[in-house]
Amino acid sequence: MELCLYTPSTIAPPHCITTSHHHHKIRIKSTTLKTSHFSTNSTKNSSSFSSRNFTKSIPRRRTRHFSVWASTQVGDAGSDDPLLKKILVFKDAFWRFLRPHTIRGTALGSIALVSRALIENTDLIKWSLLFRALCGVFALICGNGYIVGINQIYDVGIDKVNKPYLPIAAGDLSVQSAWSLVLFFAVAGVSIVSFNFGPFITSLYCLGLFLGTIYSIPPFRMKKYPVAAFLIIATVRGFLLNFGVYHATRAALGLTFEWSSPVAFITTFVTMFALVIAITKDLPDVEGDRKFQISTLATKLGVRNIALLGSGLLLVNYLGAISAAIYLPQAFRRSLMIPAHTLLALGLIFQTWVLEQTNYSKDAILGFYRFIWNLFYAEYIIFPFI
Prior knowledge:
With 386 residues, this protein is mainly alpha-helical. It contains 13 helices and five strands. A three-stranded antiparallel β-sheet has the order 1-5-2, with no helix packed on it. Strands 3-4 form a two-stranded antiparallel sheet. Helix 6 (175-216) packs across helix 7. Its main location: membrane.
């Protein structure tokens, strides 16, 4: 017999969904749990329900109903579909391997820049360019997958301490399979870009892959040197992405490249933002970085100082955005730029205050880092309309 626990808002685990007469489900009366945290640790046993590093916080004054099912399996284990299980396991490992928060940033950034170029040249829009645009987004996702994949391959030991939920560190994806994936990403990305966007954009794309490679692999391992690591991340995610996508879009429309005020703004803004991400990404990883002698600003200067530094740099960014709207009214929409960036800055101040009140606990640091990424996404969402 096997007990499976899940909320009504989630899907029952696959092995709790019966597909043959050899399985029986017994509904056990819903239970009401009052707790502040619920977590389950993952295992590799296919007969148990697992959720990797899943933690669900529940407010103390509210109750949450959970449905508990008892599932009995009669007969041999061969009644389950092993192929389906392998596919589901690989799908989960593959998605974690891609680092979804970075994929969202890359996809939002490329879509925002393309949208801006089209808004500026609505008379040149052709539906025939849609497929080319989708190829470009896929190539960027491949480049993103290559860079984060290479990093995981060479950071297995560190990730077992800092990020044990990542698939290689958790044992859900072999190093050999990871190499196959990153090689596919590199070949597919370069092929798509060279075929659709010409030699200049291809050279920019290859430069991004090269910087992502030397960031992680020995003997270069530039991530060990804080300044070099910050510059690589800021260059790839800040300048190359924004400049490259906008340049490629204008070329596809038959236009030569020229800076517009909004594009110059977002390139500068996101380059600074990427620098902040590069600084704050090490905040949750101090324990593992110290163990493996990885030198970061967080290990040298302390978590509190780096968190305050990151918040300060972002506030300067937001003040710059508000100032640009005030002094360049012909280039930006004041009615959107000023209130939007004011609200985002206030949200950042509040989140920094929360971090201070919790005495920089690990959960609070993770929440702070996630909030910074949410601010990053928000900037790209409002960008086409500024």
